[in-house]
Amino acid sequence: MYLKKALWSEGLSASAAAKKQQTGTSSSPQELETETATATAVGELVNSLSKQRVYREITLGLRAGLCDARAEFSFLRVRGLRSLLKILRSVAQSDSTIHLFSHSQSQPDLQVVPVLFQHSFKEESMEDKVTSLDHIFSVDPMKITSPSTDAEIALALRVLEGCCLLHCESTILAHQYKAIQVLMNILSTRGELEQGACLDALVSIMLDSSSNQMEFEACNGIEEVAELIKDKQVDENLRLKCGEFLLLLIGHVNGRERAPMATIHEDVRRLLGEKSASLIWAASQFGSTLDPAERLTALHIQARRVLESLDLY
């Protein structure tokens, strides 16, 4: 879904401006005041209609994507997740559309996060497994739900990340579904594709969420990340992602007064050593005045330095 400006709104605005130019030089003060009020009313009407149209497009896109994301088969859920991810990318382009998306998440039937945990992140149970063919000869059909594929898990993590970044209350919903425990399980059992997306999602759900941060500490999440970054057999890109995660965790997620994870610096020092811990702490203070592109480049460079400091020992 790509949100575009309505053509009729430009036409109304242009006609109102042209009319104002034609009558502006020969009109009396009272006529000018009336025309100004009319133009203002037209502008407000155009803005209101445009806002309603965009909100309608967002809700329609969400309903279509969520319908597929609730499907029993993984390929349909993947299609729905791709649609939801496209919606989030379109919404992120302006503050007004972000506000409309946040408003849509107040409606239970349009909430994205619960659907992710109820379907894509749901672990396969014994009821979902086909253990015999007896149901073929029975009267009642058997409901079969295909397990989540690697691609589905990775897409669901990206959708979760986007929802939490655009709508802060989505982190509360994620906490209700024990998101940290679910994501830590993905980080320890899934492949590199899901692990990289999982690290990004962890940052987003812990940002400005003390409950998720405390849950991460209770799950010994920092130890899991430390094991990945120290393992030289792990793919280098994933190790770099772990370095970026630690930098963001210490410098931006936990870098506030009375941070919930009070022992994180001691944990990093214990797990990675004094030199690497000091480098991570110093590097995590990078780029607060840089633009987003330069900040991202600085993050990559600092993560590389953290990795090099670990490889020296």
UniProtKB/TrEMBL annotation:
Query: What InterPro entries does the record point to?
Result: ARM-like, ARM-type_fold, Cell_div_Cdc14
Q: What is this protein called?
A: Impaired sucrose induction 1-like protein
Q: Short name of one Pfam family for this protein? A: CDC14
The record's listing under PANTHER family reads:
CELL DIVISION CONTROL PROTEIN 14
Superkingdom of origin = Eukaryota
